Amino acid sequence: MNDLHPEPAPSTARPDAAPFAAQLRAAGVPESIWPMLASHGVGELVPKLGIVFTRMEAERVEATMPVAGNTQVVGLLHGGATAALAETLGSFAAALHAQGRKNPVGVDLNITHHRGAREGLVYAVCTSLHLGRTSTSHQIAVSDAEGRAIATARITNQLLEPR
Fold it and tell me: Which of 16, 39, 139, 157 has the maximum number of C-beta atoms within 10 A of its C-beta?
């Protein structure tokens, strides 16, 4: 083609892969979960924040997020980015619990920030507190590479019938 409209790169995804295969792969989502995300992927915020999942189960979701690109004015990890990381993990865990039969909607998120981070990755571990028919609650611990607590969050999701 030309510089403004280059030829698209050949796809390495299987023909039956989700339309968001590249996004799901980059975010570390296991292929077994792709069918659940086939119509919408992981959303736009996950790639913007650089979130990469390292474990995805209803009872436990783990991920990393870089500090770079997610800082506030004085160079510390932005509390809003940390809260978005926590809500992302809790919502994915709720969705995994619901197995596509219901849609999770966050109804409560609280977060306590313990210390700042200036570089590297932060690590988030989301564990279930309650996995019910109509709601879930999860706790999310965010730490730095040395294992120091950055933040602790709790999210409650209501599980709604699909429209």
Answer: 157
Q: Which of 5, 31, 28, 7 lies closest to 18, judged by CA?
A: 31
- DSSP state, residue 77: B
Domains parsed from the chain with CATH numbers: 1-43 (no CATH), 44-160 (3.10.129.10)
Active-site residue list: 87
User: Residue 40: pLDDT band by 50, 70, 90 thresholds?
Assistant: confident
State the Cα–Cα distance between residues 33 and 97, nearest whole angstrom. Answer: 12
d(Cα 163, Cα 92) in Å, to the nearest integer?
19
Residue with tokens 């109804």: 107
52 within 8 A of 92, measured Cβ to Cβ: no
Q: What is the pTM (predicted TM-score) of this model?
A: 0.87
Single-letter code of the amino acid located at 40: H
103 — pLDDT class (breaks 50, 70, 90): very high
What is the C-alpha to C-alpha distance for residues 52 and 74, in angstroms, rounded to an integer?
Answer: 25
